[in-house]
Every structure is written in structure tokens, then in C-alpha cells.
């Protein structure tokens, strides 16, 4: 059954704070119903007296664990002030003095020590510790303990040194433009293979110029050249160009062509100022080039790629010397020299004969030139420079052109796309004598446009207008 609400014993109206008389059921000021005021609970609460909490005597409160035994709490300590102990209960040694702020310690690993999961920023500790997380109850870094490594620092990765920028003298990667190129030809930053220095070479020396290119099908350039200018004893200028083509089926053909071109060029530039006849100097230069290539076969097996079953390094050679009124050519192999007159109404000429299977077939009358060079054996050479070559027979010839023109010295990488003298004359720019470097670039581009199946090398030597009649010497 329902019950009436009981009057609450209060001294003031809960609504308007008006004093009440005992027995009032409604407030005389605002009419508030005093019967809805809840009755005061009959218990013995803890009262605050002057800020001190007192408890009833019949309650058995437990003593705080960290108190002094009389209900007073122990003094508060920071975590770093608490004496630490190791796993056996022994006191920990005092922490080492902190490093000065201006010179923070940087972890340095001793030589030969493993780097994964090991810290070496405290030299007095053993060499290896397993990493473990810090105690979550402590807010300060604990002192180092033998047998326990400090916690890894979260910012350690952010302090990893950035890749050093390459010095100005070092090669910079052509792909990322940031990494240093290692000795093996690859970028240390992105791993991109770098173009070899000999993939494309250009040189201009006085009135002559040469260009060499790897081509579009070969993985390296096995051609080499040497160009230079000197003076004869009477002061007349002399121009020299040597072009060599490495034999791809031989060992280290790129080294062979480089050694031969350097030796022949140095010999010519040294002999001509001493008064040696240009044709004799060319003969001696071919012999010097042969000796330089032969010397490559005498090197240790490690220098020969540890392949004793392979044949010796080998290459072909062709060269030209231009002096006042005299043109001398020399060759061994199938590289060529062309004469292209400045007046294109006069016929051009090829000045060398190939040491090749096709040339032998034509010379013997067994095939015409078109049939011989259409055969798959056409480019098999019968003469070359190398330790395994047959008896060396340097070819030399001298000419006295009666008009100005340009001398084209090239490998088969070019003349395969301009085989006849007429085709070569059409490919040579009209201003090649005045702009030899530009002309050499145009001829290399002609070979690349034709397919670039081989390495391409060409040197152009302008021949000045002679002061006397022409003839063969």
C-alpha cells in the first residue's frame, strides 16, 4: 500500500532558504512542499574537523606499507633516488658521470664487432648484450648493469648519418645525380650501371678530329683512336691519325685496340720531327703497335681473365699522315682510308686494300666484289696485330693529291654503311675540311642511322691545296 511522505526535519527551506518553524509542512514564504525533502540517513559519517580526517574508533584501518608504522606516510622519492638492486639483490654501482651537453656521446662500434642488436657507447661493459625494454616502474634511465644492456634509444635511427655527397673529383651517377660511382662502374646509391668512358669519344687536335661510338648492338666499344699534330724538321705541319678495331673473337679486344693506337700514335709523333720519312715512320709505327699488342699476351693469367683457352688479344690498324703535299697511309686488317676531294665533281678513291677473305677472293679472280662481300665469310680477316697473328706484313703507301680534299680513316663499323668510295663521298659533309669534328659526328650518325651493328670510329684529316702537281710516290 502507499504511504504518505514523511516531513524532513530541516531548519531552512531548500528552495528559498527561508527559516522554518518546527512542524511546518510548507514554506511560509514560497509554499515549497517540505514533505518531499528526503530524511537524513542515520549513520556516523567521518567528519572533517579543522582539516584533519578522523575515523570511528571501531574501524580497524590497515597500516600503509610505506608508512613509518604510525599511520604517517613515508617521504616521497623520485625514481632515480631509489637505490636499485640487481637480480641477486646486491646494490647497483653508482651511475657514470654525465657527458657534457656540448659533446654528446656517439655510439661507435669497435672494429670487427657485430652491429645488429649491440650497443658500444659504454666501453667499460662486455662486448655484447641482448637488448631489453626498460622497467616501466622507473622514469629515469637506470645505471648500466653488467649482464644487462640499456634500452635502445628511439631516436637512434634518426641519427643515422645521411649518405655522403660525392666529392667534386668523383664521378656522379648519370641516373640519380647524387650517388658516387664505384670502381666497378655502378652507382653506390641507386645501383645504376654507368656509361663507360669509351662508349662515346670525341677529340679535336688542330685541323683534324676523330669520333668513336659503341654503336647500337655491342655492349662495349672495342675501337680506339689516336690523333695529333706535329712539325717536320723544316717547320712544315704534319697531321697524324691512327684508328684501331679490336677483334671481337679475341680476348680483351678493347685493350688491344687501345694499346695499338697509343703506341702507333706516339711513334709517329716522335719520329716525324726527327726527319724520318713519313712512310718509314708509318711502317715503324705499325711494328710498335704490334709489339704493344703482343705484350698483352705475356701478362699473368689473372690479367687475361683467367681464360688460357682463349686466343691472344688482337686488333686491326689503319693510319694516315698528312704533310705539305704528301699523304701516307698504312694498315693491317680491314679498316680503311678514303680520299674525298673538295670538288665533288672529281672522283673519290679508296686508298687501302682489306686483309680479308672477300678481298682475297676478288684479288684471285674467283668472285667479283659484290659476290665476295655478300658471302658470310666476307669479313673474316687474314691480317691483324696480335701474338697469334701470322707473319706480320705492314702495308704502307704514299700519295700526292693534286687538289684539296679530306682523308677519311675509319673502321668497318662505318664503311659497312658506305662501302664504295662514291657512297663515302656522299656521306661526308661538304664542309668536312673546314669543320672536321662536325663531319666526323655526321659520319658516325650515318652509321647509327643505318643500324649501328658495330662499333663506329672515324677520323678526318683535311688535305691542303698542294703547291705542285700530284702523283704517286
The pLDDT mean sits at 78
Measured between the Cα atoms of the first and last residue, the distance is: 149 Å
Q: Which residues form runs of ≥5 with pLDDT under 50?
A: 1-6, 44-55, 104-141, 469-473
Query: From the helix content, strand content and strand pairing, which structural class follows?
Result: alpha+beta
The number of E-state strands comes to 15
Shape: elongated
Percentage of helical residues? 10-25%
Question: What is the N-to-C order of secondary-structure elements (H for helix, E for strand)?
Answer: EEEEEEHHEEEEHHEEEHHHEE
Beta-strand percentage?
Answer: 15-25%
Determine Rg (CA atoms, Å). 49 Å
Largest sheet: 7 strands, antiparallel
Overview of the molecule:
The chain is α+β, with helices and mostly antiparallel strands and 473 residues long. Helix content is 16%, strand content 18%. It is built from seven helices and 15 strands. The strands form three sheets. Strands 5, 6, 7, 8, 11, 12 and 15 form a seven-stranded antiparallel beta sheet that branches. It has a six-stranded antiparallel beta sheet with strand order 3-4-14-13-9-10. α1 runs antiparallel to α2. It is elongated and about 150 Å long. The relative contact order is 0.09.
Features:
single chain, 473 residues, alpha+beta, 6-stranded antiparallel beta sheet, 7 helices, 15 strands, elongated, disordered N terminus, disordered C terminus
